[in-house]
Design a protein that fits this description.
Elements: E1 5-6, E2 9-10, H1 25-72, E3 82-88, E4 92-101, E5 122-133, E6 138-148
Antiparallel strand pairs: 1-2, 3-4, 4-5, 5-6
């Protein structure tokens, strides 16, 4: 079937079909909906990755605080049984628990359950450091520390 022209524009054929090619309004709207869904999914993915990165960053900071507190135990402060607490900035709270660990060579007297230190030249301590970050992240590290017996 031959197409008729009126000037530069094609004219609709006699059988009622339009000879102009292009997208209908419905096709354009569907394309926009598909694009919006795709962009929304990408935005959610980026937001999830950013939250995960923040949690990792906070966890690494808490781990560094715990390592620092554990290394300082017995170096910058004396090892004594008990608990200590503190804060690092506004984000991290730490709690250090120090318990004296008795080596198997130390005898325990039956009457008062006090350790006998007749031949011990060193004392051993089990030091546990727990760091809580503001976001709910908790890191716990523990180590066995050795300190010389205090001089009388």
């Amino acid at each position: 079937m031959k197409q008729r022209r009126l000037g530069n524009r094609p004219v609709a054929p006699v059988d009622g079909r339009c000879s102009e090619r292009g997208f209908s309004l419905l096709e354009v709207l569907i394309a926009f909906v598909v694009l919006a869904i795709g962009l929304g999914a990408m935005t959610m993915g980026v937001a999830l990755a950013m939250r995960s990165d923040l949690r990792t960053h906070v966890g690494q900071g808490a781990l560094r605080v715990a390592q620092s507190r554990l290394e300082a135990a017995g170096v910058s402060e004396a090892l004594v049984p008990g608990q200590r607490e503190g804060r690092v900035g506004r984000r991290y709270r730490w709690r250090q628990t120090t318990v004296e660990a008795l080596p198997s060579t130390l005898a325990v007297r039956k009457q008062d359950a006090e350790p006998s230190r007749q031949s011990a030249a060193i004392r051993t301590f089990w030091v546990t450091v727990v760091v809580n970050a503001g976001s709910g992240t908790t890191v716990q590290l523990a180590a066995l520390k050795v300190a010389p017996e205090p001089k009388p």
